[in-house]
Amino acid sequence: MTTTARFIGKTVLVTGAGSGLGRAIALAFAAEGAQVIASGRGAAPLDETVALATEAGGAAIAITADVTRPEDVRALVNRTVEHFGGLDVAVNNAGVFRGGSPVAELSEADWRVLLDVNVTGVLLSMQAEIDRMRVQDGGGTIVNISSNLGAHLRIPGVAGYAASKAAVSALTRAAALDHIHDGVRINAVSPGASATTMSLRPGESDAERAVRMKEESPLGRVSTAEEVAAAVLYLASSDAASVVGTDLVIDGGTSA
Q1: Complete DSSP assignment for 114-178
Q2: Which of 143, 110, 102, 103 shows the shortest CA–CA distance to 16?
Q3: pLDDT tens string for the chain (256 positions)?
């Protein structure tokens, strides 16, 4: 457990919480006293996240949902409210990566998956979350997970992913302006390469990635999942009460 406990009594929903950044974010909230709902498409990884949160002294439950299905997202929020009585913080982290080909060879199937999960999934999630938050005392806070690839940085071969994440950044800022008067504060975090499997190139080991990042990142390394989670918790906390519509880049200076 951490020495701070900014989220005691708060209910926090994290999508894509079965692994990687989503799991790290869920565990960080649990460590600071939150009641965490870990959501994703697979039950087994979510159960592991819940077990890790419980072992660390936190509180968490798992609820499976597919963010591309509006009925799933609505049911997810409804079950959260039924179980804990409200929804204080939502972190829309669920996302997929498809890359490795230039625009002319980008398959329609990959393009549609990127838009469905990374963009429509965030939209549907925010709609359900905002509908609940704006009618409850105290409103709520939403943090969307975007990427430094998109609005901040472009590299060859990942146009579809970059376009989807640029849309998340723009959607976040627009939603923030639309709903701050409803008492819902919305921001984004845009990680660069972090210590998750998503940042590994095909066949690359962690050690090989570490060597590559010494050249590619001004910081000389990937961000840890815990460093990204710390940024999310800051934006979700009262410490960031006047932060509205920001897109906080955590990428070691790669897109500076």
Answers
A1: HIIIIIIHHHHHHHHHHHHHTTSTT-EEEEEE--SBTTTB--TT-HHHHHHHHHHHHHHHHHHHH
A2: 143
A3: 445 899 999 999 999 999 999 999 999 999 999 999 999 999 999 999 999 999 888 899 999 999 999 999 999 999 999 999 999 999 999 999 987 789 999 999 999 999 999 999 999 999 999 999 999 999 999 999 999 999 999 999 999 999 999 999 999 999 999 999 999 999 999 999 988 888 888 899 999 999 999 999 999 999 999 999 999 999 999 999 999 999 999 999 999 9
Beta strands across the sheet bearing 89-92: 59-64, 35-40, 11-15, 89-92, 140-145, 184-191, 247-250
Q: Report the amino acid identity of residue 249.
A: V
Q: How do the domains of the chain map onto residue ranges?
A: 11-250
Cα dihedral: 128, 131, 135, 139 (round 10): 70
234 is annotated as an active-site residue? no
CATH of 11-250, one of 2.30.170.40, 3.20.20.80, 3.40.50.720, 2.40.10.220: 3.40.50.720
Cα 112 to Cα 100: distance, rounded to the nearest angstrom: 16
Instruction: Give the whole-angstrom CA distance, residue 233 versus residue 27.
Output: 11
- Residue 95, C-beta contacts closer than 8 angstroms, at least 6 positions apart: 16, 117, 118, 121, 145, 165
Which member of 114, 161, 172, 209 is catalytic? 161
Q: Distance (Å, rounded) from C-alpha 222 to C-alpha 209? A: 8
pTM of the predicted structure, to 2 decimals = 0.95
d(CA 58, CA 36): 8
